[in-house]
Design brief:
By secondary structure, the protein is α/β, with parallel strands linked by helices. It has a single domain, classed as Ribose 5-phosphate Isomerase B, Chain: A. 45% of the residues lie in helices and 17% in strands. The protein has a 5-stranded parallel beta sheet, with helices on both faces. Strand 1, helix 1 and strand 2 form a beta-alpha-beta unit. The longest helix has 15 residues. Bound molecules: D-ribose. D-ribose binds next to helix 3. The site of D-ribose has 8 residues, from helix 3.
Length: 153
């Protein structure tokens, strides 16, 4: 798959490790940056990568910031993006199986490299389960994304 990776200044050790890991799995990987230790704003990186996934330039995106939260929230504001913000492999797996996530975000100050690699493995190898129930829920996410109303539960 074509994978895009981006992160802020807090990810300079973890991001290259993840990029190499994803490459070693045989994927085409593009690390957008940052490549500098200078403080930079995570929304800029989340938006840059999410726009490219939403446009179909990449199949999936991996985002990293200190916690994964800020960059993941940003990505989720981009039309068409479903970004799981996770700290464990089970959630990463389920973000694909049930939510059909096209991006994942995690924190360089939260997970170590080996755990991050396990998260990425689940994200890249798990298929969307599909089926009426999960397809309906993902469709409802898209309706919210499109500004539509959902039925009152
Ligand atoms: C940067 O210090 C930090 O706020 C950022 O990496 C991230 O954790 C935000 O959610």
């Amino acid at each position: 798959m074509r994978i895009v990776v981006a992160g802020d200044h807090s990810t300079l050790e973890l991001k290259p490790f993840i990029v190499e890991h994803v490459r070693s799995l045989g994927h085409e990987v593009h690390d957008l940056g940052t490549h500098s230790p200078d403080s930079t704003d995570y929304p800029l990186w989340g938006k840059l990568a999410a726009d490219k996934v939403a446009a179909g330039e990449y199949d999936r995106g991996i985002l990293i910031c200190g916690t994964g939260v800020g960059i993941g929230i940003t990505a989720n504001k981009v039309h068409g993006i479903r970004c799981g913000i996770v700290s464990d492999p089970f959630s990463a797996k389920m973000s694909r199986a049930h939510n059909d996530a096209n991006m994942i975000a995690f924190g360089a100050r939260v997970v170590g490299p080996e755990l991050a690699a396990m998260i990425v493995d689940e994200f890249l190898t798990t298929d969307f389960e599909g089926g009426e129930r999960h397809a309906r829920r993902v469709r409802e996410i898209s309706e919210v994304d499109a500004g539509e109303q959902l039925p009152r539960p």
